[in-house]
What does this fold into?
Amino acid sequence: MPEAARHLPPTLAMQFEDPLQQHEASTLGMWTFLATEILFFGGLFVSYTVFRLAYPETWHTGSHHLLEWAGATNTGVLLASSLAVALAVHFAEHQRRTALLLSLASALLLGFVFLGIKGIEYHSEYMEQLVPGINFNPAHDPSGRLQLFFFFYFVMTALHALHMLVGIGLLGFLLYHAGRGHFTVPGANTNAVEIIGLYWHFVDCVWIFLFPLLYLVR
Amino acid sequence: MTLLTPSSPAPALVVPENYLNESFSLRSWLLTTDHKRIAILYMLSITFFFALGGLAATLMRLELLTPHSTMVSDDTYNKLFTIHGVIMVWLFLIPSIPTTLGNFLIPMMIGARDLAFPRLNLLSWYLFMIGGTFILVMLLFGGVDTGWTFYPPLSTSRVHTYVILTAAGVFVTGFSSIATGLNFIVTVHTMRCPGMTWHRLPLFIWSHYATSIVLVMATPVLAITLALIAVERIFHVGIFDPAYGGDPILFEHLFWFYSHPAVYIMILPSFAVVSEIITCFSRKNIFGYAFVAYASISIALIGFLVWGHHMFVSGQSTYAGLTFSLLSFLVAVPSAIKVFNWTATLYKGSITFQTPMLYILGFIGLFTVGGLTGLFLAALPIDVHVNNTYFIVAHFHYIMVGGAVMAYLGGIHFWFPKMFGKLFPTWLSQLAAITIFLGFNLTFFPQFVVGYLGMPRRYHHYAPEFQIYNVLSTAGASILLVGYVLPLIYLLWAMRYGPAAGPNPWRATGLEWQTPSPPPTHNFEHIPIVARGPYDYLEEKPQNA
Amino acid sequence: MTQSPNTWHSTRRPSSGLLIINFILLLVLLVLTIWLAHLDLQPYNGLLALSIAVLKTLLVALIFMHLGFSTKVTWVFALAGVVWLGIFFALSLTDYISRGWAPRMDNISPAIEFIPPPPGIHSHPVVDQSENPGPPAHGSAG
It folds into this structure.
């Protein structure tokens, strides 16, 4: 067994009979996990829907308070990072180590850019006293309903950002192993790149919905 | 070296290497990825939590002997029923059969060496233990008193007990559940041995597959719901508080979307056990294999459509109530199909009343009672009358205790020889099974009556005319306690001193019985190739019985 | 195994060119979403924005996540989460719409009167919804 591959799990784990089975298991396993994530976020989306149907004007007002440029840019940033990750999977499978490293690093960087812009937004909302439970200024909305909008804004984007953070960590893990050549030696198991890619794309999909639902309520 | 005692036959001088004796170090247990060892770890954990939840129940039943407050204050009583519910649901019933019998048997039944993700399996146990520890810490700090259902605004704004700590504990155990379900689903899809087509799978696998669908799809909603409770409790924004434009019923929709399917997580694995045991002790193929298999899947699916029947009197609209009522009638159909098929399996079978069979026969009767009373409750007018009374308590205990716990015990007894390579005492185990059955009925049948007569649940002050029923119930509980303690004693005894079991003491079909008892770490020397269905009992000649 | 590891999965994969085209399509859709949001197309703004989001998600799923190149079993797994969420939405909304939480839509039963949430924050809990939603003025339908 090549020296580099010893640090990874063995190419074929003990419980599997062949690499095809291992790949199928990894893929189905990650899709199952993504299904659970759909339902995890889904609870928030259902709650959001209930309140948006009840208080449409409040949602309109709240949406206008958000920084649309930030949301739009972040959407573009995430789409680009998804491209980078998809290319990373492609390069891993074609055993192109440098291209793999560059695409993983780009995705990682774009992930940090996303979080940076999010941080700017949160700071701006904090300065405007829009954070429920912390410094929300009742003068924003005499009816008291705007807090509900911002509750959903902060909880949903924070949960999403948490998932981004985990994703960034996973990309870092991939970057480390890719640097050691573990995905590009002959006989390498590239499942990890593929399934972490799936996770990353999913987090992107969640944002694809969050953006219009939070920033573009008209 | 095996111990020589007068009661055991001359043992082999060399015990073959198996998953138990391959290493005795603590590290080899705490870092194991062997699904069989993880099953044993879970068994120890859930037995501990069952005892703890049972202790809460014991205190409740003692308190309920009199109509007035005698032993505990109102607040303490609230904590007792809350803790009983939280522990029994999340730390015992939800994991019980899947993490013990499921973990142990699923790879063996499909001819695999382990689950698809053995390290995820170990993580699952650690998550369970971490969540359980949160609950224990919560108990030490002073408990929680919102009911296991955590309804806001009570849980978010009114109580000063440890709601967030409890929610965190349940949140973490939820991920343990999700990991187990995910592992099972992928395993059944990808790790079946050659020849093991879907329709040759033991029904144990079908039911666990159905359970896993529910585990994976329902539990995340519980997770987000608990997270929202915690955030609400800290920040008081008001999404569940009508005073702030929120809706407490939104919480109930979120909570019951998980918690109704959760009851199917708790009962479907019991169906798995029943199918295996009833075929073995009738010496007969299951009647209507496909019906039983697809009924399990239907229960898992339709079970997601009925959660509003927990909210008939909470304030959801009448129209929603009608919808959920109709769907709740529908979900009874596949369960009934299974009961009919099991009964038909018994018909013209060569029935013997070994201990596992006693538990399963008890299950069928008690589950039927529980299920029928569920139908009563699905009817809106009846539910309006008996909701929040002891009728409900009796209904779900018939299914969860008369059903799930008995099936769990039946399964433990059935596969005990395989897991530990030893036999347990016959007559004592049969006596324990009967004791449990009698004690159970004495405990819970009076609760149907007293609930119908109007005694509310979660109260320890009640009208004096209800006392006789409560006394009967507590008497039954004391018998039940004896019944539960007996297996604990004789099974532990048998692990050490029982006679050697051999690979297949029940002469059952199934790949797990083709291995030595206890099985070797990697299950099979060679991966089997399957060419027959799972319940090939008909090929036996009667005189060999 | 003498096979190259890159063919251990039995399905095809998108080329790097396809990945880049997909990205450009996604950016176009993003610009479209934003542009449409600034036009007044009530009451369709929300629906349009969501539809475009669905389209973007489909593109990400089919091409970036390889669903368009995967087995039927994988499709079922991917769809399951969406279907289950759909169940949650559908049945929950039957409750909310029939309780008047959504502004009155003409084709929803008119027997339920929309009771607007009370203005301002009250110091006592407001009970404005009972078990039987039949409004007194119009006679009960429940």
